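Residues determine shape. Next comes a sample protein:
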Amino acid sequence: MKKRIAIVGGGISGLTAAYILHRDYSETCDISLFEAENRLGGIVETVYGDGFTIECGPDSWVTEKPWAEQLARELGLADELLRSNDHARRTYIAHGGSLAPLPDAMRMMVPTDLSAILASPLFTEAAKQVYMGEPARAEELREAALANRGSDMDESVAAFVRRHFGEEVAETVARPLLAGIFGGDIERLSARALLGPFISMEARHGSLIIGLQQRSHAPRSSVFTTLSSGLGTLVDHLQQRLPTTSVRLSNPVTTLDSLPTGWAVETTRGRESFDRVLIATPLDITRRLLARLPFTQAQQAATLLPSHANSGLVVAFAYRRLDKATAAIPNGFGFLVPAAPVSDHSLLACTFLDQKFPNRAPEGATLLRTFFASSAADRLSCRSDSEIATIARDHLVGFLGPLPQRADVTIVRHWPRSLPQYEVGHLARMAQFDACLSSLHGFLVAGNALRGVGLPDLVRDATQAAHALARN
């Protein structure tokens, strides 16, 4: 008799797990994928209009993490793989009423070329001197890193950056960069969870600048990868590989319960029994389902999940013709605003999507995508979409110059509480989380609250979970 496996949640995690189970274990497993909404993909959504390809959620993945690309190739999407225009890769920081470029050859806040730092208008002389002095402190920094290695000691991103580069770099560069990616506060975010490669670099070299300089000699591909027809194509191809009878849309799971030989899944349409269950839902739903299980281990696991998730809000503007003489959009991928995310309506970032990737907009057209997060996103979400678009446009005018009152295409997307915050101690809590759930046979959890928010991380973890459910 086949194992019956329930997957709760139809985002990339749940979809990937369902695909792996059907691909490798269709002779031994039957799957049912429950999704509360009327579409699959979660925050991955691509909209097409007037010749534009507009991403409403993530616009790409980090190329050096291989798992999303491996999945795309397996799904027959090799010809769709689209690399970022790294010859034009430049990020700007809102600084002193204008947009100042981050120096070339930087990875986040770490430079490989110190001469570019010296020439940058973004930093004061004091900050430049801290940068210049970081390599000379390599042994001191390495000894401090090794003293903490192997322990559960963690620190905030802000503390980690300040140790290497000082207060000004933490505020001017690290804060807007991390807010733009995770929508969070560097005073609370975990360095070990979010800056893993830099943590390893510090343990080996002490100086992050020296470590990055040694890595920079290796050839690198483009930093970001997407699909030419949009990331929604990945969702479509995953769904097409599944039996239509296995997908239950508009069917939210309300309760999970244990049975003598498995698990009960209760939805608004009834109750069914399964041998295995994978929860792949947003943080708040995952916590609620775990907390309601009649097991102390599950209830404790619920308390170990991130305590908070920030909201995100995306507003995209597509212009077929834009007066470049008035709107001063610089060459590059976009800009970040180094303002605290608690400001009422503070814009965190804007991406110039027509420049970041080829063929995202018709020839000569402009595609801008703004991002708000945390309390700013929550406050804006109380407004109508037209009011939100007006506020976002007004922010852009302040940085880029006059823009038309109406765009040819305007998209507003609300992603409430979609950004789990990996706060200090997150990795240690996840180890405890795994230990709590290890005693619950045939029960696993995946998703962006655990070990990464990017598409490659989600694909990797969901693949591992699918194999574990089928084999154990």
The chain has a mean pLDDT of 92. The chain has three domains: 3-40+232-307+423-471, 46-87+309-420, 104-215. The domain at 3-40+232-307+423-471 is CATH 3.50.50.60 (FAD/NAD(P)-binding domain). The two ends are 15 Å apart (CA to CA).
